[in-house]
Design brief:
By secondary structure, the protein is of the alpha/beta class. Helices cover 36% and strands 21% of the residues.
């Protein structure tokens, strides 16, 4: 999309793992166990686990929605925000799996799948004028990809600064994905390290 901001091209661990996946049968392990495994697996094993989760028998299509799947009987209290973001992801061509939050396990919110590539995102719905930085930091330890669903008119200069600080504080961070109305921005580490990042980001975000 013309509105996307993307880093210099590179293949990350999740994309490498996706190329290696051959599993097609539902797993017999519990969904909670698979979600817990996301904290200890890396590379191809991490993506293998993502796919196992999406194949789990607990997931069912969400009634009256397209390409949105939820674990039966495990809707989160923040479900309206999750559904809002999930619909936007579907508009971008993703299948979306809304993850449950088992007691005692820190989990992200979504698995997005598109063209055989699986990615794990933690959703932060941004409503406050200066809250993006704090919300992104909350995701550290859950996943290396954050999804910001912008529900407020956020200052582009401040948001660029928040994103840069997030990458600095989280060496494992791969991507900040932003939904702003019908626009999508994908910010990766390579772009943030560009000296012209603030200018590039603001030019695109303020369009």
């Amino acid at each position: 999309m013309n509105d996307d901001i993307t880093a210099e091209s590179f293949i990350d661990d999740e994309e490498i793992g996706s190329l290696c996946l051959v599993a097609s049968e539902p797993t017999t392990r519990s969904l909670d166990a698979l979600l817990e495994d996301l904290h200890i697996t890396k590379g191809a094993g991490f993506v293998w686990t993502l796919k196992e989760i999406t194949l789990h028998g607990e997931f069912r299509p969400l009634p009256n929605e397209t390409n949105i799947f939820v674990a039966s009987g495990k809707q989160d209290g923040d479900f309206d925000n999750l559904l809002n973001a999930a619909r936007k992801a579907v508009d971008q061509g993703y299948r979306v799996f809304v993850l449950p939050n088992p007691k005692g396990i820190r989990t992200a919110d979504f698995i997005f799948e598109r063209k055989g590539v699986y990615r794990l995102y933690d959703l932060k719905t941004i409503r406050g004028k200066g809250s993006a930085g704090t919300r992104m930091k909350e995701s550290i330890g859950q996943t290396n990809r954050v999804l910001l669903n912008m529900a407020t008119d956020y200052n582009a200069r401040l948001l660029a600064s928040d994103i840069k600080e997030y990458f600095e504080k989280n060496p494992d961070a791969i991507e900040v994905l932003i939904f702003k109305g019908n626009k999508v921005f994908s910010i990766k580490r390579g772009l943030v390290q560009n000296k012209a990042f603030n200018r590039i980001f603001r030019k695109q975000y303020e369009k």
